[in-house]
Specification:
This protein has six helices and six strands. By secondary structure, the protein is an alpha+beta fold.
Length: about 220
């Protein structure tokens, strides 16, 4: 597959980690990335891929382009809304994880030849029941503070396949970017186990705190 891939434009961001199978909306305003979008639109639709990579900050010594924290995720451009002043609102669909083989100069934005990474075997199907239970309990207990909207939670609790459930939670739970990057670096089965562990820990913590919330509510009512 890597031999058939075009050069992948790279879009490093300090707080964004994209996951396969998820949608990522972005607002494009820097001139170099406006040019990136215009270049992508000249390609056939299957080749309109953007390499989303976590920006690791300045390299040692402080000179040169930002350090790339890999792996990244190639997102396919599925929607573009040109704005009047030359900016764009775009939507990417995560296609596959990748490692960078070599960067190639020649454009205002960074670009690279990449090596796709397989997601590995499917997660253990038995994980789904626990994930669904813990997601429902944590979402209910945290209410408006839960990072997913009620409709999104209901969708995931319904017929979402296990890989979609895992990647949506990895993308949308309130986790630091470095933690998300750690999840992205895992094969899908290990990522599923890690997400299950995170949700189970939150469910146990919320259960342990429940009596104290009731006491606080009772005190406030008096």
């Amino acid at each position: 597959m890597s031999g058939s891939l075009p050069l992948l434009p790279l879009f490093p961001l300090a707080t964004v980690v994209h996951f396969p199978g998820t949608l990522l909306p972005l607002h494009i305003f820097e001139p170099r990335y406006r040019e990136m979008v215009r270049d992508l639109l000249t390609r056939p639709e299957p080749e309109r891929l953007v390499g989303m990579v976590l920006d690791g900050g300045p390299p040692p010594g402080g000179d040169g382009p930002a350090t790339l924290v890999l792996p990244g995720t190639a997102g396919r451009l599925v929607d573009v809304e040109p704005l009047a002043d030359g900016r764009f609102d775009i939507l990417l669909h995560g296609e596959f994880r990748f490692e960078v083989d070599e960067e190639v100069p020649g454009r205002p934005y960074r670009q690279a030849r990449v090596r796709p990474l397989a997601e590995g075997p499917e997660p253990d199907p038995s994980l789904r029941d626990g994930l669904v239970r813990d997601l429902a309990e944590v979402a209910l207990a945290t209410g408006d503070r839960f990072p997913l909207a009620p409709d999104d939670v209901a969708e995931l609790l319904g017929q979402a396949a296990l890989p979609e459930l895992v990647n949506r939670l990895a993308a949308e739970l309130d986790l630091p970017a470095a933690r998300r990057q750690g999840l992205l670096s895992l094969a899908l089965a290990d990522r599923a186990a890690a997400i299950a562990s995170i949700l189970a820990s939150r469910r146990r913590l919320l259960a342990a705190l429940r009596p104290f919330r009731h006491l606080a509510a009772h005190a406030e009512s008096n």
